[in-house]
Design brief:
Blueprint: H1 3-9, E1 11-16, E2 21-26, E3 31-36, H2 45-70, H3 80-116
Antiparallel strand pairs: 1-2, 2-3
Helix pairs in contact: 2-3
């Protein structure tokens, strides 16, 4: 198992809104799971989006901590190549999360409109 496989194998979950939203990420901060309690769908769109961001942030922080602990000491030295790779992973992760949150916002707004009808 190489280092990337070890990062991908890391799993951390976090919840928000009293457990109505649960997010799981891997050690590269990729979203690997999103569970919404049916009651979460009754939340206003902005509140649901914030709960997802909150849970994602907590899970990501925990996964980063565990992934950092998995890095061999030799790789923890300042290295331009390693820093470049880390920056790329961060950028890719942010792009993916932004797309996910945009989709969640759109879905929750549709649900709000449907509830008003």
């Amino acid at each position: 198992m190489d280092l990337l496989d070890e990062f991908v194998a890391v799993r951390e979950t976090a919840t928000a809104s009293n457990g109505l939203v649960t997010v799981e990420v891997d050690g590269t901060s990729d979203l690997t799971g999103l569970k919404l309690d049916p009651r979460a769908l009754r939340m206003p769109a902005a509140e649901l989006a914030e709960a997802i961001r909150e849970a994602f942030g907590r899970a990501r922080a925990a996964a980063r901590q565990r992934a950092t602990e998995a890095i061999p000491e030799v790789l923890k030295q300042d290295s331009l190549e390693l820093n470049s790779l880390i920056d790329k992973v961060k950028a890719d992760t942010q792009e993916g999360v932004s797309g996910l949150l945009a989709t969640v916002n759109e879905l929750t707004q549709r649900l709000d409109r449907l509830k008003r009808q």
